[in-house]
User: Which sequence fits this backbone?
């Protein structure tokens, strides 16, 4: 009996990542369908790779966050439009409105601190995730983001990390 499992011809890791990203799309789609109103105390932290294919953000944000940034959907956002492959939203950064287009494939983390729920994804470009400053868009506190990093505290964080075979 071999200790090393055989290489799979089915890309399970990609299938699971895609399915979990669909959870984000479904949640954002429900918010869009409700007229852009978040129910109860729900609010979201969405972290994404700024250099990923399909990401469209203002140049000044790309310069400030060349690898990854976290946006907060809580009180001050508008024009949420959710599509099959991603979403668009309008947020303010230091009182300056900005439109962002973010494909689901660029998302690396999704957290709803109101219910202690989070999803963490592998970066689609297989790059290493580095720590980063929060974007601090207007109208939100920065509490709870670190909860996505660990599920040791009993929170409902789902981390899917399929190691690459060498």
Assistant:
């Amino acid at each position: 009996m071999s200790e090393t499992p055989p290489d799979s011809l089915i890309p399970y890791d990609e299938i699971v990542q895609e399915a979990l990203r669909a959870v984000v799309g479904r949640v954002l789609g429900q918010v869009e369908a409700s007229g852009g109103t978040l129910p109860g105390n729900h609010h979201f932290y969405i972290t994404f790779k700024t250099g990923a294919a399909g990401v469209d953000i203002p140049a000044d944000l790309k310069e400030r966050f060349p690898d990854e940034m976290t946006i907060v959907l809580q009180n001050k956002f508008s024009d949420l439009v959710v599509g099959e492959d991603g979403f668009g939203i309008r947020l303010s950064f230091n009182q300056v409105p900005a439109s962002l287009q973010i494909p689901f494939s660029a998302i690396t983390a999704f957290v709803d601190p109101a219910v202690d729920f989070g999803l963490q994804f592998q970066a689609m470009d297989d790059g290493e995730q580095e720590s980063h400053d929060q974007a601090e868009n207007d109208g939100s506190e920065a509490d709870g983001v670190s909860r996505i990093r660990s599920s040791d505290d009993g929170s409902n964080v789902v981390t899917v990390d399929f190691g690459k075979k060498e």
Confidence is low (pLDDT under 50) at residues 126-132, 140-166. Strands lie at 44-49, 68-73, 77-82, 86-93, 96-103, 107-112, 117-120, 156-159. The helical segments are 12-33, 59-64.
